[in-house]
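testing teh design pipeline on a random one, pls ignore if ur not involved
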């Protein structure tokens, strides 16, 4: 039986005469996607939105001729994105009969702890910023449209990002969307040398330090072999140095190859990214705003707001409030093979 009201009728196994050993085999995925974001504590009294702006300057000094005024540097406020708070929660109810007659307190505690619900939803929403990164929006499991655009109004991964003060464009999507390989990685690395531009169209640099994949075994094993081999993975000669050994760390996002509801989607299993993360202002400008950290609401008890005194039912609940935005695709390069 299943249900969201714990009572002795629906869940008679917890109160009947038979003695049972309860087994919980599956484990939740450990949340890791937050590592892709700069965490920005916001808290109460700060409204329900926050804006993130780019700012740029020119790069080079200009010739100062004798007796003439020195040139002035241009400074510009670039693109911006606005983060909007999203609040999630869940509850489960338990009758007084179940509270009084349940033989298995450890099972009741497991069910009413609710500790995983909000962190797991945050993990899914964070991951889907990259899962659906070639689109400008997607419809989430609640039926809401989620805006995925960066400050330029385009998808985070595209071949023709615009610049605020230049007619040039730049790309952060590997041509042809190849599966992970040395050649594919080198194609991504080439973009780090040609397509990291300021809003004035001038060349910039970022430290790309992480390869990001889903949990597809073929892709994961290819990355591990690539980064950990002592010799060049494409050579038979063991004396040829592997120049990629320990060059990047490998981050696995278990929910990357999923639908909007979190179900498996095999067409996305070989997605991979080269990213500059954990470097604050000098890396990927992806932000997680925290208005309300995951927490249990007031524990139910006789006479408080989590008790329905007319039905003798206690409600256990959890809540969190957060937001995700990516200001620009600078700092991450993606490949999206579908087979």
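output:
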């Amino acid at each position: 039986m299943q249900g969201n009201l714990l009572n002795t009728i629906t869940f008679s196994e917890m109160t009947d005469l038979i003695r049972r050993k309860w087994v919980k085999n599956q484990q939740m995925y450990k949340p890791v996607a937050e590592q892709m974001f700069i965490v920005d504590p916001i808290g109460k009294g700060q409204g329900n939105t926050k804006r993130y702006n780019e700012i740029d300057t020119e790069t080079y000094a200009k010739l100062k001729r004798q007796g003439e005024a020195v040139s002035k540097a241009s400074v510009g406020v670039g693109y911006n994105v606005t983060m909007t708070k999203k609040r999630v929660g869940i509850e489960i109810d338990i009758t007084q009969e179940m509270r009084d007659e349940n033989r298995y307190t450890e099972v009741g505690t497991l069910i009413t702890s609710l500790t995983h619900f909000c962190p797991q939803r945050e993990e899914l929403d964070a991951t889907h910023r990259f899962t659906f990164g070639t689109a400008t929006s997607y419809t989430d499991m609640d039926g809401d449209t989620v805006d995925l655009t960066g400050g330029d109004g385009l998808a985070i991964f595209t071949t023709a990002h615009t610049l605020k003060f230049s007619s040039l464009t730049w790309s952060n999507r590997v041509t042809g969307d190849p599966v992970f390989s040395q050649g594919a990685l080198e194609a991504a690395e080439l973009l780090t040398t040609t397509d990291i531009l300021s809003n004035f169209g001038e060349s910039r640099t970022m430290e790309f330090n992480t390869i990001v994949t889903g949990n597809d075994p073929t892709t994961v094993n290819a990355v591990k072999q690539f980064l950990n081999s002592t010799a060049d993975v494409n050579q038979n000669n063991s004396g040829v140095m592997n120049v990629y050994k320990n060059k990047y760390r490998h981050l696995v996002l278990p929910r990357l190859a999923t639908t909007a509801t979190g179900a498996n989607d095999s067409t996305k299993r070989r997605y991979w990214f080269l990213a500059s993360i954990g470097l604050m202002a000098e890396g990927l400008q992806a932000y997680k705003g925290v208005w309300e950290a995951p927490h249990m609401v007031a524990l139910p008890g006789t006479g408080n707001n989590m008790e329905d005194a007319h039905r003798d039912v206690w409600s256990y609940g959890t809540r969190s409030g957060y937001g995700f935005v990516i200001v620009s695709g600078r700092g991450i390069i993606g490949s999206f093979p579908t087979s």
